[in-house]
Amino acid sequence: MSSRKHRGCENMENFCPVTRKRSTNKNQVSVVGALVSTTKSSQYEHPSSPPALTFEALEEMGIGMLDSEESSSSALSAIALAVSAGVTSDDNSNETTPYASVPRMAHKLQHTQRLSMGATGDTTLDIHAVEDSLAMCRQSAENLQILAQTKRSALCSEGSSNSNSPSKRLRNPLVAVTCNNQIDGTALLNFQPSTSRLAQGCLTKKPSSAQITTRMIPRDGFFVFRTPAMSAHISSGINYFERLSDEILLDIFKWLPKKTLLRMATVCRRFNRCSHDDSLWTRLDLGLRTIRPRALEEIVRRGVLVLRLAQTSIQEPAFAPLTEAFTVRLQYLDLSMASITRSSLLRLLSHCRHLKKISLENTELDDSICAEIAKNEALEAVNLTMARGLTANSVRLMMKSLISLSSLNISWTDLSADAVTALVTHISSNVIRLNIAGCRRVLFDSHVASLQNRCPQLLELDLSDCNSLTPTVITAIMKFKMLEYLSVSRCYLIPATKFIELKSMPSLTYLDIFGMLSDAAMEVLEKQLPKMGINKFIHSSVSRPTVGTRRTSIWGLRTRD
Amino acid sequence: MHSKYWKFFIKRLFQHSLNKMSIIATESESVQLQTNDGVIHTVSIDCALQMCPVRNMIMLERQRNLYTNDVIPLPRVDAKNLRFIIKWWSSVQDLEESVGTMGKKQLIQLLTEENASHDFLMQVILAANYLQMKDLLKATTHVLADALNECESVEEIRKKFNL
């Protein structure tokens, strides 16, 4: 091992990848060999991976190459270091450049790892493969610094990495320097330390990166990752965790709170890999917090299914520019009262295609955002209360494509007359709960009539504050055969006497008519409608994620596990 | 006649109410298990049936109406671990409450009695994994997770567990 290092030293003074290429041409090394030894010395519990790796890697060699030629990256050059360092005798005849092969290997490593892990996300495994190769090179302080920076950048940029082009992920040394500075300020979640157990991965990465930028001289604490030789020197005992399989490790991690889970990710590579497993990150509650730039991207890339971001403020830029398309698994998203810019919201929603329930209460929307919402055809519940920026076009688009929609709350959104018409003309017939309160002067009886035509099975209808409704609307409402809840609060044009007609609706159980009758009149009405629950609900609960005082669940789903 | 009894038996097994088995199985005998260091343990049948490999073997035997009294080998379990597991199981059985809550406490108690190290705990985890005893696995992993949780810093974890 030491001899390897020495040989590597003399070749690699600078890190220019071009020189790298030229000089390493002669070392058609077993990058394979290098990596294999890495895997063997690493702590992975993959008995089958080294042979699988080499075989697949060899297969890969002949196949087309990554665009590693273009990308200049310190990690690649570092890998080249590894390549030259590991001058072993078994020279496999590979025409391909070592660079490309190593990231490819990384890809393969990731594959084998993925297989043995079961369902794990793409992004996490790359880092480890990269780190593996990085671990090979330990020659000079200078090398190490840059390596560490790359690792940091790789770690921190895991959110923006993509398994399909591993080479692109690695950045050139200069970028690594600036990237590091960037990273210090970005992708860090600012959380109130004492109160909650939740934090984001970047936070735990911050201390180590801070370490790196301040100390340029290698010291004992400088090495964030260790070579096997170093480990053997430092730790004297047997590592019992080695015997446990990854699944058992996952079982152990399942008990840990998120904050500890993140700390685990920094303990060793294997823990890092396991703690990033998707099954541990299905639910996340980040309500009332401030999310630093880029953190949101990492959050959604972890594979979160249930995400509560109520009242969070999401700082710009929430997504790294120019990331390739990745699909986010998010299904239940609560962004009520979140402060998020339109562009971030657009980016976020452009990746979501599996949403089932979404709440965008009090957020700013525009046509493109609504178009993205519309693309989630599995949406069942949409809450757009007090959202700003809805136009007739966006309403029409959404209504037309959201055919599985069952509950919609579009109250107080300042809809125009056109928008309301679009709404009632195109609304899906599966809707059973609808809240269009607050459409002052734009909602007319005719709209209710066409609504009745479209959705005869409506169970819950809230028409509060639509003060253009006249007594004839009651006739239209009577046609809803299954209606259980009706609210026409503050529709001042409807006289009290009309409500007595509602008696003939067998299914109607609750009637809300706040602000319409005097107490005396109310008493009379109550006598007339003995079985009706009158004025029982002040707040509508249609599509609302959190109703009442429940705060740790959205739409009945736990947000903390 | 045995097969009739056995069909009952299988039904119960699948209902996970293994406690009832001791009532049904009139042949409430004990089973002999041999661990990988050659020691032969005699365990009562309801304890043995908790362990999946043993259970599968017994079920296979009974299905085919072979009644051998051979020793069942457990190649992946040590004698010490098996004794510990049996002790845990019997102590959990005695309690009336759910295994989930009490299992862990019992486990901690037993572990401190033995002055067990983390190594021992991990061996128990591996044994529980091999024997597919879910409750024991849950309890042991919970204990280990607590140990991980308690460590203040990453360095401490590394030192403690020699990572």
TrEMBL record, chain A:
Coiled coil regions, renumbered to chain: none
Pathway linked to the protein: Protein modification; protein ubiquitination
UniProt cross-references to SUPFAM superfamilies, sorted A to Z: F-box domain, RNI-like
UniProt xrefs under PROSITE patterns: FBOX
Protein location: Cytoplasm; Nucleus
GO molecular function, one term: enzyme-substrate adaptor activity
GO biological process: compound eye development; endomitotic cell cycle; G1/S transition of mitotic cell cycle; positive regulation of cell cycle; positive regulation of double-strand break repair via homologous recombination; protein polyubiquitination; regulation of protein stability; SCF-dependent proteasomal ubiquitin-dependent protein catabolic process
This protein's UniProt keywords: Acetylation, Cytoplasm, Leucine-rich repeat, Nucleus, Phosphoprotein, Repeat, Ubl conjugation, Ubl conjugation pathway
GO cellular component, one term: cytoplasm
Domain called F-box: residue spans: 238-284
Family annotation (PANTHER family): F-BOX/TPR REPEAT PROTEIN POF3, S-PHASE KINASE-ASSOCIATED PROTEIN 2, ISOFORM A
Record's function text: Substrate recognition component of a SCF (SKP1-CUL1-F-box protein) E3 ubiquitin-protein ligase complex which mediates the ubiquitination and subsequent proteasomal degradation of target proteins involved in cell cycle progression, signal transduction and transcription. Specifically recognizes phosphorylated CDKN1B/p27kip and is involved in regulation of G1/S transition. Degradation of CDKN1B/p27kip also requires CKS1. Recognizes target proteins ORC1, CDT1, RBL2, KMT2A/MLL1, CDK9, RAG2, NBN, FOXO1, UBP43, YTHDF2, and probably MYC, TOB1 and TAL1. Degradation of TAL1 also requires STUB1.
Protein name: S-phase kinase-associated protein 2
Organism of provenance: Drosophila yakuba (Fruit fly)
TrEMBL record, chain B:
Keyword match Iron: no
InterPro entries per the UniProt record, alphabetical: SKP1 (IPR016897), SKP1-like (IPR001232), SKP1-like_dim_sf (IPR036296), SKP1/BTB/POZ_sf (IPR011333)
GO biological process, one term: ubiquitin-dependent protein catabolic process
UniProt entry keywords in alphabetical sequence: Ubl conjugation pathway
SUPFAM superfamilies attached to this UniProt entry: POZ domain (SSF54695), Skp1 dimerisation domain-like (SSF81382)
Recorded family membership: Belongs to the SKP1 family.
Name of the protein this chain belongs to: SKP1 component POZ domain-containing protein
